[in-house]
Amino acid sequence: MSKFKFSVGPWNVHPGADSYGPETRKDIAFEEKIKKFAEMGFSAIQFHDDDAVPNINDYTEEEIKQKARDLKKLLDQYGLAAEFVAPRLWMDEHTADGGFMSTSEEDREYAMWRAYRSIDIARELGCDMVVLWLAREGTLCAEAKSPVWATKMLIEAINKMLEYDPAIRICIEPKPNEPIDRSICGTMGHVMAVSAATIDPSRVGGNLESAHAILAGLDPAHEIGFAMAMGKLMTVHLNDQNGIKYDQDKSFGVENLRAAFNQVKVLKENGYGDHGEYVGLDVKAMRTTKDEDSYKHVQNSLDIFRALEAKVDKFDYEFQKKCVENRDFEGLEMYVMKLLMGIE
Ligand code: XLS
Ligand code: MG
Fold first, then answer.
1. Residues 229, 27: Cα–Cα separation, whole Å
2. How far is Cα of residue 276 from the mean position of the Cα atoms in its chain?
3. Residue 248: nearest ligand to its CA?
4. Residue 142 CA, ligand 2 centroid: distance in Å
5. Per-position b or e across 180-211, b if 16+ CB within 10 A of its CB
């Protein structure tokens, strides 16, 4: 039985459109998705602000809060919590040049409006965390924005959120690229530096996504460990990548099994979840996946995580200790490979 609680966002089950082609599957209604997620054993749902309140621009602040209260009743019906709310600052015309560090003051104000609404929605859903995936926060033209100015704008925006709500936690999900090619906060190291520069570092931490660490050429388990060492790993988005081609959000563990094993191991060894943290998934089905298999990649990710957790439980720490004392890392590595191949 896994010690962990799991969360997932409705965007993980999707109709399959990508930048180069239209939908290949029928869209599935939100309530049908969360009912299925509850049946699969998820404990919490991740939200973008406009997952929680579609067409959010069309409503007043009070109407947004009311819609969030209605959504909370639906979550309660299925015994589901809300893990976080993330302002989706990459789909709107006002955020074509980013949000917090847009070159347009009006657009920066719009981004703050969405950030404040995300906080309002989070509160109505009974959660205290806002995730910032900084999709377009950076620049496509090096000379258009100073990286000094842009970084300071991000810190200023986070400070405004921290002042807007005295208990909200801000969780930055770093990503080095895509859709932007000069990102301002690309790794967990950047997140820790930004956190330290805010007015309340205790309320600013990180969400490590496996694929984003791989895109930065880094080991996801080490990015997780770094954030945990700082006491600032607020959540994770587990998935996988076949190299650093583009963001693939593949099912957890399907490309880099040993790296996935070490992500589970570092989480388990360091008490992740003991303070209510969820193991979050952020996975996308292959474009070729049929309607009837719309949830298979999500189930596969859960199953692989649990199978690797069982491998971590089997891990022989005495043998590891002996190998380290003898500096027999070849022996240790082969032990791990046999463990993962089931020949141990
Ligand atoms: C995209 C991000 C995204 C956020 C939620 O690369 O991972 O999925 O986590 O919008
Ligand atoms: Mg993500």
1. 41
2. 16
3. 1
4. 25
5. bebbbbbbbbbbbebbeebeeeebbbbbbbbb
Using most ligand atoms within 8 A of CB, pick from 133, 172, 298, 301 the residue to mutate for ligand 1. 133
Report yes or no: 226 and 193 within 8 Å, Cβ to Cβ: no
What pLDDT does residue 3 have? 87
Which residues are known catalytic residues?
Answer: 48, 51
Q: Which residues form ligand 1's pocket by a CB distance below 6 Å?
A: 48, 86, 133, 173, 175, 209, 237, 247, 282
Which secondary-structure segment (H or E) carries 29? none
For the chain, the domains span 6-313
Helices and strands, number each (H, E), in the chain: 12, 10
Q: What percent of the chain has pLDDT over 90?
A: 99
With CA atoms as reference, report the closest residue to 122 among 69, 199, 58.
69
pLDDT of the residue at 2? 76
Note the helical H segments in 83-233.
105-124, 147-164, 188-197, 210-215, 220-229
331 CA → ligand 2 middle, Å = 36
**Cβ pair 68, 53 in contact under 8 A:** yes
Closest residue by Cα to atom 9, ligand 1, is 133
Q: Which CATH number fits domain 6-313: 3.20.20.150, 3.40.50.300, 3.40.50.1820, 3.30.360.10?
A: 3.20.20.150
Tokens linked to 214? 């791989």
Q: Three-class SS string for 270-322?
A: CCCCCCCCCEEECCCCCCCCCHHHCCHHHHHHHHHHHHHHHHHHHCCHHHHHH
Strands 138-139 and 233-238: unpaired
Looking from the CA of residue 178, the nearest atom of ligand 1 is 6
196-210 average pLDDT score: 98
Candidates 80, 2, 73, 3; CA nearest to 34 is 80
